[in-house]
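Field reference: sequence -> structure
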Amino acid sequence: MLRIAICSDLHIGDQAREFDLRPGGAPSYAGQTGYLEYFRRCIDENAISADILVVSGDITDKAQPSQFDHAMNVIAQLADTLKVQRDCVFVIPGNHDLNWDVAELAIQKKEPFWQKFRFAPFINGLSSFDGTVTRASKLADPPHFFLANNALADMWCFNSAAYDLPETKPHHGRIREADRQELKSALEAAYGGAPKEKFRLFVTHHHPRPQPDLYKDWPDFSGMVNGESLMDLLTAYQFDVILHGHKHKAWCRSENVAGQNPIAIWCSGSFSLSLGPLYAGSVGNVWHLMELHGLSEAENAYGVVHSWAFAPGQGWLPSRPVHHAIDHVTPFGKVADRAAIKQLMRTEIKTALKSKSLISWEDVCAESSGLLKYQSGSVVWGILEELKTDLELRPHGDQDSLDKLYISRRKDAA
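Structure field:
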């Protein structure tokens, strides 16, 4: 099993929600625990550790050197708390990590010389963290990606924010065709004709597919230009997971193209940005622990993601769909026809309810072949609604949530 901690969109600076995430910020209120101490408590209380830590962009709010210095100190604390080695920490720049003050010099003075320095604070900050500029430099220069080999996974990291300049309207991510061709050549060299032996993950900042926005009927222009072409490439080379940030609402979807491996696209949300009133009560600050449990016979990854959301005065709590836009438990990777899932649920629930009047979703999954364990909450609850009358049952818990889902026989059932 591979465990990946995801803490994205820190926005270290004035927009970070707590003082200990702001360079030179005032201390926490008297008697109040700091944000990072709450994180340490969550890790200790749940006995959590990780193999990899991913920070998928917008590390800072304004890409100032002091913000990067502070951000790298914060990331080091996160890694140490999770017991992750420095070379297993993957930090990707976002659109807030490109220094626009420097980029403006190139635009106003018409001197491209300055362009290569727009990522200098990011490179300097990351080199102070892991002692090398290699990874950061590869992300700053074309074709803006690198491959890191882990014993259980290949981590492909790409800078989708490389061309988001002050004059770009509207602001968005991009993968240029020239960079995509370079990536294709690298993927062919790594995987062409070879059997799949490890997980394949792609980390970037911008989303390759449009995503819904709460309370807005606006088109999504903030994603990645040529994202569809990137998706086609990653699908063809059997990637398992795409991890990205940028959107502050955590979101998971599975792309399943007939005859090809499904890809789980995971949007991280924000670890510590002070979220505005637009999101109040429906989107929270979150972090995640992705567990990749294995590769199926069809060579696609399956696993589960656990998510925690921050509650002021309480710390990190298991997230709820209704309050934080993501469930505490999000399974993925086991693909089957809906009719087959429904029939299996019908059989297992009927069997379990013969001996007990109240069963948990874990009880149902324990008796199945393993397929049910990796179905999403929306699929499970949707099918439960269809089975309610036929099986005379009642589901209990938060809608679309698998955490603490229970099923009972109706009292009027025989």
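Note: The chain is about 30% helix and 20% strand.
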